[in-house]
Specification:
It is built from 3 helices and 10 strands; from the N terminus they run H-H-E-E-E-E-E-E-E-E-E-E-H. Strand 6 and strand 7 form a beta hairpin. The structure holds copper (II) ion. The site of copper (II) ion has 7 residues, from loops.
């Protein structure tokens, strides 16, 4: 997400430059070259080789300057660097289910997995977010390379957490992968972002990032 914001800021610089330049050229043409201010046209000025070359090359260079950081970010986002843990998120009509296959529940001797359901209005406690809070949410450790594997059991869903910069389709029969590294504690909300039926708005995502020690004690409770 930091990369996306940085790219936006970078591109915004060029956009402002272009908008100002184009507005200035249009307004100066309207003001200076109308029939009141300029009665004559110069008969022999109908082609300018240098000008043509300049206004072809210059926009090309600007486009290249915008394209290169954009491609770098695009391919960097695909890279999954040695994940320390894996979270599998499975979309169902209409809730998310999570599997932490790196961890074993010692009492049942099975990998940790749980369903995450929306809290309805009656169940909400003071301070909880309406239509965003869930009964059991995902804890993840901070400063850890986490791999998310996204899939679905029925129709296409979409696992989207905007503040983490994730938005990945959950397709039945297919595993999609992305990775995050969260560098501070906090709660991150997301929603299903692919229309998946009447309960589409009732399957929010809640991820809480905590220190590694807190994370290890929290997952005991799943
Ligand atoms: Cu959905």
């Amino acid at each position: 997400m930091e990369g996306i914001i940085e790219l936006h800021d970078n591109i915004m610089f060029y956009i402002l430059l272009i908008v100002v330049l184009v507005c200035w050229m249009i307004s100066s043409a309207v003001v200076n070259f109308n029939e009141y201010n300029n009665h004559f046209s110069m008969k022999y000025l109908n082609h300018g080789m240098v000008l043509e070359i300049v206004w072809t090359i210059f926009p090309c260079l600007i486009l290249l300057m915008i394209a290169s950081p954009s491609f770098i970010l695009l391919y960097l986002n695909d890279e999954v660097v040695l994940p320390a843990m894996t979270v599998k998120a499975i979309g169902y009509q209409w809730y998310w289910s999570y599997e932490l296959s790196d961890f074993l529940n010692t009492t049942t001797n099975q990998t940790i997995e749980f369903d995450s359901y929306l809290l309805n209005d009656e169940m909400l406690e003071l301070g909880q977010m309406r239509w965003l809070d869930v009964d059991t949410w995902l804890y993840v450790p901070t400063n850890t390379h986490i791999r998310f594997i996204i899939t679905s059991m029925d129709v296409i869903h979409d696992f989207a957490v905007p503040s983490l910069g994730i938005k990945i389709d959950a397709n039945p029969g297919r595993l999609n992968m992305t990775s995050v590294i969260i560098n501070r504690n906090g709660v991150f909300y997301g929603m299903c972002s692919e229309l998946c039926g009447v309960g589409h708005s009732m399957m929010p995502i809640k991820i809480e990032s905590v220190n590694v020690e807190d994370f290890l004690s929290n997952i005991m409770e799943y």
